[in-house]
């Protein structure tokens, strides 16, 4: 909405005639008429009095608080996409500038338009790259001052990509402060900076740590899905999930213990005493592989603490204690093979 439309809209909402408004501002009625028709603009000294009279902020009067609906935003973005197919990139650029001037504080729209235009510049390899890059960079930098965190992060993301493309790694690193320390993508971006700067050891460490963290996250999520499946007695799904979780442990070279721990949970859920005893024997025999991933080539640049042997022994003792005392495993203790199993491990 342009200033003439804002003035007309709010004047009418206050049931004020053009003549009444003119009298309050010390101007003529034809002057107000020209403002509202768009034939002329109010003098800059009158902007504050007009805003007070209409009970709006200067930002709103000047359309700086324009809020576009999702439909309007989609319509503008669609127009820009269609122009790329039919118009020279300079024409598209000029149209984007017109839109941003018309809606200077429609930040979500602006962020989308910058991203679309930037992508096309990269894909097309346009001649005036520097000129366009300057506008893209400046626009992203302006959005870093937004009150909306989502906009700030989006702008920082776009600016980071621009700096990486231009090999401006120090500037790219400064963009990372806009990302939460818990954002998994932040570390990946940092690793890209390390790589670009030739700090390969740091890049390895950062990426390997993220790979390990992502494995742990996926493993926990799969086990939680397994628990839901068991709770709802969907044992077919539970078995599929555990097979995936075991394959995941093998893929990331977690060691035999981790490959079979989930399978033991499935056997317990199915009350399969024979399979439970087999897997329990397997786990107790492979407790020393719990930290095998620290020997994997996948994580060779990471630093791990040495495994304390007492921790491994404690894991074995606690596992035996649970199966010997917990009512959950009563069906195992009442099974045919428990006596032999107990004799083997309780005296070990």
Describe it for me?
The chain folds into three domains: 3-61, Orthogonal Bundle (434 Repressor (Amino-terminal Domain)); 70-198, Serine Threonine Protein Phosphatase 5, Tetratricopeptide repeat (Alpha Horseshoe), CATH 1.25.40; 203-346, no CATH class. The model has no long low-confidence stretch (mean pLDDT 90). The chain starts with a helix and ends with a helix. It is elongated. The chain has 19 helices and no strands. The chain has helices at residues 3-13, 18-25, 29-37, 47-54, 58-61, 70-86, 89-102, 107-124, 129-143, 149-165, 169-175, 184-196, 200-231, 235-251, 256-269, 273-285, 309-325, 330-333, 338-346. Helix content is 71%, strand content 0%. With 348 residues, it is mostly helical.
What are the SSEs and their pairings?
Elements: H1 3-13, H2 18-25, H3 29-37, H4 47-54, H5 58-61, H6 70-86, H7 89-102, H8 107-124, H9 129-143, H10 149-165, H11 169-175, H12 184-196, H13 200-231, H14 235-251, H15 256-269, H16 273-285, H17 309-325, H18 330-333, H19 338-346
Helix pairs in contact: 2-3, 6-7, 6-8, 7-8, 8-9, 8-10, 9-10, 10-11, 11-12, 12-13, 13-14, 14-15, 15-16
């Amino acid at each position: 909405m342009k200033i003439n439309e804002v003035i007309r809209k709010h004047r009418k909402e206050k049931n004020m005639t053009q003549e009444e408004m003119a009298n309050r501002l010390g101007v003529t009625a034809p002057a107000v008429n020209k403002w509202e028709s768009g034939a002329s603009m109010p003098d800059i000294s009158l902007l504050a009095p007009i805003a007070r009279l209409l009970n709006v902020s200067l930002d709103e009067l000047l359309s700086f608080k324009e809020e576009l609906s999702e439909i309007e935003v989609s319509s503008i973005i669609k127009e820009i996409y269609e122009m790329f197919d039919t118009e020279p990139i300079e024409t598209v650029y000029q149209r984007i500038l017109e839109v941003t001037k018309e809606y200077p504080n429609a930040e979500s729209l602006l962020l989308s338009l910058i991203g679309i235009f930037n992508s096309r510049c990269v894909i097309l390899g346009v001649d005036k790259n520097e000129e366009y890059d300057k506008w893209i960079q400046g626009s992203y930098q302006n959005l870093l001052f937004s009150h909306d965190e989502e906009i700030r992060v989006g702008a920082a993301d776009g600016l980071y990509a621009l700096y990486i493309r231009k090999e401006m790694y120090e500037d790219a690193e400064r963009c990372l402060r806009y990302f939460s320390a818990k954002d998994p993508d932040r570390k990946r971006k940092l690793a890209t900076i390390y790589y670009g700067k030739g700090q390969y050891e740091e890049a390895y460490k950062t990426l390997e740590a993220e790979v390990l963290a992502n494995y742990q996250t996926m493993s926990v999520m799969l086990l939680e899905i397994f628990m839901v499946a068991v709770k709802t007695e969907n044992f077919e799904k539970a078995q599929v999930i555990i097979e995936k979780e075991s394959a995941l442990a093998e893929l990331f070279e977690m060691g035999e213990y981790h490959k079979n721990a989930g399978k033991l949970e499935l056997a317990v859920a199915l009350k399969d005493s024979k399979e439970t005893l087999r897997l329990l024997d397997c786990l107790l025999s492979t407790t020393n592989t719990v930290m095998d991933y620290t020997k994997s080539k996948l994580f060779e640049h990471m630093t791990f603490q040495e495994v304390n042997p007492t921790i491994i022994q404690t894991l074995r003792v606690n596992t035996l204690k649970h199966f010997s005392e917990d009512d959950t495993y009563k069906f195992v203790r009442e099974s045919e093979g428990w006596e032999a199993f107990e004799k083997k491990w309780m005296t070990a």
